[in-house]
Amino acid sequence: MILYSWNVNGLRAVCKKPGFWEFFNQPQIDVLALQETRAAPEQLSPELLTPSGYTSFFSSHLTKKGYSGVGIYSRTEPISVSRELPVIKYAQEGRLLHAEYPQFHFLNIYFPNGQSGEERLKFKLDYYEAFLKYCQELRKTRPVVVCGDFNTAHRPIDLARPEENEDYSGFLPEERAFLDRLIESGYLDTFRVLNGDIKDQYSWWSFKDGGRRRNIGWRIDYFFTSEELKPNLVRAWLEPKMTGSDHCPVGLELEF
Fold first, then answer.
1. 167 catalytic per annotation
2. Residue 65 has pLDDT above 90, yes or no
3. Which of 69, 74, 139, 144 is most buried, judged by most C-beta within 10 A?
4. CATH number reported for the structural domain that contains residue 82 in this entry
């Protein structure tokens, strides 16, 4: 199975960018998970809402139009699909889609950003905790695959300028500590498991100051799997040449 995750920073905008439809229509893609779609289903064109070859699912912010949102395009019909964490305060922002497949639970998540103040940082950290609890419950029935924009770089190797960002949300000790605990709980950062500590590998670059051209970036988009799937991991990769968003797609191949 070929799985992709991509924060598109606006689905209605990115679909007009060069190369999007060529990427989207690759026949080898089994599941394509998108974050920051910034659109409710009723705002999408038919070619995005019901594209040939895919079944689509979306979750969007209940009150803010053009904010957050996630989508899944699947070549096969999942067993079931649910939206949002089962906690009311986390079920408003269009951040999670859970698709159940025979081999695993698949979670596509756009995690909160903590940069707008202490309140949102707390919301982000609390969301992390609720997410891990949810994963651990799901894991009792099937292995788990989690992908999306985590809005946190895990280790210094995962961003170009770690020393300059130690006091900013996205690389704070308490945010990074959650990713440590996620791994300690039995989840694998598939990119590092399969590629080791290769440097200068990023999935997000600021639009400012030519960040992408200079490769001054952060790796904040991940595929994590529960460790039961380690024998099924084939390859994990980033596609920095795919433009259209300030993030690039990240991929995972599993074999069953």
1. no
2. no
3. 69
4. 3.60.10.10
Q: Is the alpha carbon torsion for 59, 111, 35, 141 positive or negative?
A: negative
| Widest Cα–Cα separation across the chain | 47
Show the domain range for 195: 2-254
List, for residues 206-247, the tens digit of each pLDDT value.
Answer: 998 899 999 999 999 999 999 999 999 999 999 999 999 999
Q: Specify the pLDDT at position 5.
A: 98
**Residue of 126, 149, 158, 200 marked active site:** 149
The rounded Cα 127 to chain-centroid distance in angstroms is: 15
Strands 2-7 and 31-35: parallel
Structure tokens at 160: 């170009």
Residue 55 CA to residue 5 CA, distance in Å, equals 16
Question: What is the per-residue pLDDT across 162-187, written as a single tens digit (0 to 9) for each?
Answer: 999 999 999 999 999 999 999 999 99
Each residue of 188-221: b (16+ CB within 10 Å) or e?
Answer: bbbbbbbeeeeeebbbbbeeeeebbeeebbbbbb
Residue carrying structure tokens 């209605």: 12
Residue of 6, 41, 42 whose CA lies nearest to 24: 6
CB contact at 8 A, 114 and 165: no
- C-alpha to C-alpha distances, 118 to 61, 114, 121, 192, nearest whole angstrom: 21, 7, 5, 31
Burial grade of 119 (CB within 10 A; 0-12, 13-18, 19 or more): exposed
Tally of domains within the chain: 1
